[in-house]
Prior knowledge:
- It is a single chain.
- The protein has 99 residues and is mostly helical.
- The protein has a domain at 66-99.
- It has three helices and no strands.
- The chain has helices at residues 2-12, 41-46, 52-98.
- It is elongated.
- The chain starts with a helix and ends with a helix.
- 0% of the residues are buried.
- The model has no long low-confidence stretch (mean pLDDT 79).
Amino acid sequence: MERQQARNANLEATDKSGAPQTVSPPAAETTKAELPPAPHCYQITCKAEKDWRDRFKFWAEIAGLAVVIAYTTFAALQWCEMKNATQASNKNFRVDQRA
């Protein structure tokens, strides 16, 4: 788009003899970007706002903890049952060997 405008400006800038005139491009406006001042560390810690992601993250972590506790409990109960079954089979094996 800018190239086409530059070509049009060059075409319009020719005089009657066909010699091109020098045309300077329009001056671009340069504005200095003003950044807001950086917040102080005490402002960042004092103004802790919680949005929906923070609340969702909290409840997701609670749900994850509940799943881990349930899995650990289930695995511990399986281990206890296997231990009892092993003891019972060892007891029956010893009784059968003596008979």
